[in-house]
TrEMBL record:
<feature type="transmembrane region" description="Helical">
    <location>
        <begin position="6"/>
        <end position="26"/>
    </location>
</feature>
<feature type="region of interest" description="Disordered">
    <location>
        <begin position="40"/>
        <end position="60"/>
    </location>
</feature>
<dbReference type="Pfam" id="PF03597">
    <property type="entry name" value="FixS"/>
</dbReference>
<keyword id="KW-0472">Membrane</keyword>
<dbReference type="InterPro" id="IPR004714">
    <property type="entry name" value="Cyt_oxidase_maturation_cbb3"/>
</dbReference>
<keyword id="KW-0812">Transmembrane</keyword>
<keyword id="KW-1133">Transmembrane helix</keyword>
<protein>
    <submittedName>
        <fullName>Cbb3-type cytochrome oxidase assembly protein CcoS</fullName>
    </submittedName>
</protein>
Length: 60
């Protein structure tokens, strides 16, 4: 029974903390665009990588 005196307040604090973190993530725009990052991963990059010496690639 004594353990409930510790576990119930800890669970209430944990739920409150999870709620605050979720509220912050919604307000900061974390869930605004759910599909865009997935398309960015598979997007084809048409530009060839830059050379380390700064010169343009020969095939341009």
């Amino acid at each position: 029974m004594e353990s409930l005196y510790l576990l119930i307040p800890m669970s209430v604090v944990l739920v409150f903390l999870i709620g605050v973190i979720f509220w912050w993530s919604v307000r900061s725009g974390q869930f605004d665009d759910l599909e865009g990052p997935g398309y960015k991963v598979v997007a084809d990059d048409d530009a060839p990588p830059a050379r380390p010496d700064g010169d343009e690639p020969a095939d341009r």
